[in-house]
Amino acid sequence: MSTMVKAEAVHKSFGPVHVLQGIDLEVRTGEVFCIVGPSGSGKSTFLRCINHLEKINAGRLYVDGTLVGYREKGGKLYELRDREVAAQRRDIGMVFQRFNLFPHMTAVENVMEAPVQVKRVPKAEARKRAEDLLDRVGLADKRESYPAQLSGGQQQRVAIARALAMDPKLMLFDEPTSALDPELVGEVLDVMKALARDGMTMVVVTHEMGFAREVGDSLVFMDGGVVVESGDPREVLGNPRHERTKSFLSKVL
Amino acid sequence: MKTPTEATESDGTPPSRDVPEAIKAIPVRHWGRYVSAVVVLVLLALLVRAFATAEGLRWGSVGDFFFDDQILEGVKNTLVVSVLAMLMGLVLGVILAVMRMSKNPVTSSVAWGYIWVFRGTPIYVQLLLWFNLALIFPILDIMPIYKDEMTDVMTPFMAALLGLGLNEAAYMAEICRAGIQSVDEGQTEASQALGMTQAQNMRRVVLPQAMRVIVPPTGNEFINLLKTSSLCSVVMYEELLRKGQNIGNTSSAVVELLMVATVWYLVITSVFSVGQYYLERRFARGSSRQLPDTPWQRARKNLFTFGRGTGSGAQGAGGIGA
């Protein structure tokens, strides 16, 4: 199986705060890769490094064999231009904790925006595709609604459809259910499960241990900017080896 | 104490209680309100009567001069210089706002300095400086392309336009910056994550949302600018006030012509206030679940439900206002 994401000794600091202190991990193509850990452990920061929303300070990060954000030539690193970074991000979908839908556009306009602007897909075609995607996430009747008219769960499903519209080879989920009312979590997880069944490569930062156990193929537990423990989700969650993992799980399970 | 009604059996809804009789109480009488309303109305009537019967003010001449060719010319000139100065202010203002937010310290400090100078000095002084630029630079010499006497270039119109426009740019720059910065950072992250470039993000995502914050103060700026344009009479620009004063002085109808100008200014600002209302509505899309009715739609609804007792009544009269 090929590798989709490869991190080698990734470090990241915000000023004096050393958030990531050497992350090494590998996400294989087609797997659901879960990242869990207490808040402040750096899991969201790491996720944001994968599509270069954050610049890493040291180490190397590859997506599908390509270095993220830089070009390496003759032993030197060159920063990529705005346009080149944008091109790299096209193939990586991202879903945010706070949805971040465009509030001045309807659901269907949100989904077709990037294909039309970035990929120059003709509008009619993009709209058709967007409608299909909204059908797929169960929002066929909400096409013309503005985000403010939708519930949190519906907004997050539109956000997933928006990311899928770019036909990404990798999907990043940054605590996609953390901002939702408990009764709305299920509908978003169902969409993510369907996506996993279709073979999408997914990196999921989550507090939903049930989801990780059910659909996760790999799981890492992060704390203090390092990977403490990794392996099969059922194994790590069911039988943690490290003290830190044990005490965290005892609090959340 | 009450028993469930029979009606619940058929539709299967949970049993509800009898709805008690609606309260019909005698409302509290606010005598103070009646008294104060009467007092205000009486004072207002006295004021109107004082102006209507004033000896020094011939209302007939106000009407005569209202559509005078010279006055209409002045109205046109006021509109022309205001609109052009506003356009200049908008374009320059957006450029200055982008410069101010740029990471380049040179461009951002230059923009800061511009705003500092043009906001920190009275527009009256700026107008006079532009008008008298010929005293500083007698010859305008833009090396390869243009050379002329400054007095030929700096006509009253140019002085008025530059004075108003460059001043407006400084204010617009701050309004635009505030608008752009009011948009949530998550929006930029979302568009970046979708592979949009910074320019696409600005044009498609940030600016349309910033407009909601930018439009209302911009409308106010324009209405202010319309009124400030009356200062251009000091640089000999023949706008509404100056035209009025010209006629007033020659026909010894000074106050009548001032009244003409006053009413014209009110008419113009009112028209633009209505325009602003609809513009704000346009950019409010998506920010609230349902756009409120326009005053016109509200009036129509009230008309249709009139007398049926089902209408919600007059919920506050038209929301127009500068």
From TrEMBL, chain A:
EC number of this enzyme: 7.4.2.1
Naturally occurring in which organism (per UniProt): Streptomyces diacarni
The keyword Calcium is assigned to this record: no
Family: Belongs to the ABC transporter superfamily.
Pfam family, one: ABC_tran
Catalytic activity: a polar amino acid(out) + ATP + H2O = a polar amino acid(in) + ADP + phosphate + H(+)
Protein keywords: ATP-binding, Nucleotide-binding, Transport
UniProt name for this protein: ABC-type polar-amino-acid transporter
Major enzyme class: translocase
All residue ranges annotated as the ABC transporter domain in the record: 5-249
Keyword Transport recorded: yes
GO MF assignments: ATP binding; ATP hydrolysis activity; ATPase-coupled polar amino acid-transporter activity
Lineage: Bacteria, Bacillati, Actinomycetota, Actinomycetes, Kitasatosporales
The organism's place on the tree of life at top rank: Bacteria
SMART domains: AAA
InterPro entries: AAA+_ATPase, ABC_ATPase_HisP-typ, ABC_transporter-like_ATP-bd, ABC_transporter-like_CS, MetN_ABC_transporter-like, P-loop_NTPase
UniProtKB/TrEMBL annotation, chain B:
PROSITE patterns in alphabetical order: ABC_TM1
Claim: Acyltransferase is one of the keywords in the record: no
Subcellular location: Cell membrane
Chain segments annotated as transmembrane: 34-52, 79-99, 127-146, 257-279
Domain ABC transmembrane type-1: 75-276
Highest taxon of the lineage: Bacteria
Keywords: Amino-acid transport, Cell membrane, Membrane, Transmembrane, Transmembrane helix, Transport
Family annotation (InterPro entries): AA_ABC_Transporter_Permease, AA_ABC_transptr_permease_3TM, MetI-like, MetI-like_sf
Example of a GO MF term: transmembrane transporter activity
GO biological process: amino acid transport
A matching Pfam family: BPD_transp_1
Any one Gene Ontology cellular component term annotated for this protein: ATP-binding cassette (ABC) transporter complex
Topology in the lipid bilayer: Multi-pass membrane protein
Family according to the record: Belongs to the binding-protein-dependent transport system permease family.
Classification via NCBIfam families: HEQRo_perm_3TM
Subunit structure: The HisPMQJ complex is composed of two ATP-binding proteins (HisP), two transmembrane proteins (HisM and HisQ) and a solute-binding protein (HisJ). The HisPMQ-ArgT complex is composed of two ATP-binding proteins (HisP), two transmembrane proteins (HisM and HisQ) and a solute-binding protein (ArgT).
UniProt cross-references to PANTHER family, sorted A to Z: ABC TRANSPORTER PERMEASE, ABC TRANSPORTER PERMEASE PROTEIN
Annotated protein name in UniProt: Histidine/lysine/arginine/ornithine transport system permease protein HisM
Biological source species: Streptomyces diacarni
